[in-house]
Specification:
It contains 14 helices and 9 strands. The protein is α+β, with helices and mostly antiparallel strands. The protein folds into 3 domains: about 110 residues, Roll (Flavocytochrome B2, Chain A, domain 1), CATH 3.10.120.10; about 80 residues; about 100 residues, no CATH class. Helix 5 packs antiparallel against helix 6 and helix 6 packs antiparallel against helix 7. It comes from Ditylum brightwellii. Pfam families: Cyt-b5, FA_desaturase. One of its GO terms (cellular component) is membrane.
Length: about 325
Amino acid sequence: MCNGKPAPTALTNNAQSTDTISTNTTKKLLEVTNDELRSHNAPSDAWCAVHGKVLSITDFAARHPGGDVILLASGRDATVLFETYHPRGVSDKLVEKLQIGVMKEGEIPPSYYSWDSEFYRTLKSRVVARLDELNLSRRGSLEIWIKAAILLIWFWYSLVQMYVSPFTNAIGWCISMGAAAAFVGTCIQHDGNHGAFAQAKWLNKMAGWTQDMIGASAFTWEFQHMLGHHPYTNLLDEEEDLKKGNGVDCPIVEKDQESDPDVFSSFPIMRMHPLHEPAWYHRYQHIYAPFLFALMTIAKVFQQDYEVAMSKRLYHIDATCRYGSKWNLIRFGE
């Protein structure tokens, strides 16, 4: 699937020139550079690029079926996000309506993926067919809500008992609360922040904020998980990794562009990818990993949350697109 070139698709209809560019509806289009694209990365001024087409998503975010999660695409090439989150495709008419420009020639970043490959098209069609066959609800179900209620009762009951019980009993309730928090983080907040907990957008937001309830940050999680992990699951940017090995540094906007933070952020303590250089202690990581995972929230707060708050970045991922969001104004009182 890797060819190092941006692959053409039904959306790749750039027809660029140095003169006026227009579509079949005679709409004049801008020619946009990467620097210009990156400057439109706020909720009130949000552009993104998909297969070389520049879309304005500022107003559309309020109508987006998946909620304002679309604003995570602000100021960046969102082709991978677009493809991975829309296996059934998106109406060409909608794309044309949102389009305001095209990326200048030579400004489209090379893609790790081949969107026009027969393998990709076949895989996508089979996945969609299988989901249709199972007839599963795409957003919310009675099972999800029952599970959420059980987990929340477990968490809050354990928390209360931890405070009111004698010290020896409180230790047990502390462990119980930690286990409940882990399930809340991997179930309720995960589904909520993916927009899959319920049909109502506000319920998805509330479910997503349970990540904050257990002591972590849904704000930071969105960047690591939805902009880092999902588009590049278990991948490492080999070119960037080679440069690191040779002691060559890159501008921050080029660092780990096609890498999964879940893979590289724990190295060298944990070796999660075969390209990482093994150390003697990695042969024992299956033993010490559970103890490290128990400290994960502390590490996230003091490293990732701090980095996002101070620099508005998480690793190579620009976090500006979420600052000024009305949901975060409500949440933090900024």
